[in-house]
Amino acid sequence: MTVPETTAAVDGATGPEALRPHAEDAFADELKALAAADDRPRPARWHLSPWAVATYLQGGTLPDGTVITPKYVGPRRLIEVAVTTLATDRALLLLGVPGTAKTWVSEHLAAAVSGDSTLLVQGTAGTPEEAVRYGWNYARLLAQGPSREALVPSPLMRAMSEGMTARVEELTRIPADVQDSLITILSEKTLPIPELGQEVQAVRGFNVIATANDRDRGVNELSSALRRRFNTVVLPLPATPDAEVDIVSRRVDQIGRSLDLPAAPEGLSEIRRVVTVFRELRDGVTTDGRTKLKSPSGTLSTAEAISVVTNGLALAAHFGDGVLRPADVAAGILGAVVRDPAADRVVWQEYLETVVRERDGWKDFYRACREASV
Fold this sequence. Notes:
alpha/beta, 5-stranded parallel sheet, 17 helices, 11 strands
């Protein structure tokens, strides 16, 4: 019997059929080109040198003409500090408000350093200690008793054994007692297995990248003991409107290609409008500095702007003429701004009437937002 291609794609987990390929798959050609051109010293078990990793994140042109697309648009020094941290025995903590590309940066760092970004612990309020240390195959445990064959390694344990980079997302969402299980791993570079009277020692190349919010404080703050085990790099919001427009445009283009959405070159004006609205409400002042504004309860992050524009592009493609227009983004902006139906709606209405209504060239956007607000 012939296996349908879609079924094979599910089993294969990677490749063109994946809805969101891992970084090492999506940018495999760039990583291969960098490795070929990279003649600088590489730390143990690193696929690229620190210089090449930074170039992969920030973009550039190689001597053979290969263009490396930027994965992170921001201060190069931040990326250099992050990469240098991973080349030492200190773990890296990427800190910032929601939507500052912490997860995106951590994934691409792991892909460039280890060639594998999948050794991931996703932090939630229910993350168990087994996700950080190890678990057990209970059928084997009952049949054979404690043994290495019955042990199920965590992503961190695998990274220690293989000299890889592990990732811990939303570290402050993880319960405090589970967080503390990282202390021995990060300070002693060992993971005791008391049931077997053994331990796993980290081999060279092992390190950890963690991410955490500094606005939504999460379920548990990091203890001072754990925080000392990390070098912290704070990822800021985009410094300028042009930088944020560039980030949103690039990511929307990447996402649109993966979803087979048509390119929207005429949509740049709407992208700039979405970014302007988000920045003004986020900063509490209009771009010209003349009007003070109330800020809503939401974060209005760059990631949310990307989501609004992507959804608008899908609306334009499937229910419009393919051109991104104000009506395509109005409902998405309303959903991003009005999180608290009482307080945020007042903020939004005041912004519409005092800023949007009076702004030249924004009449269609004003009407679309009014219709979406009804």
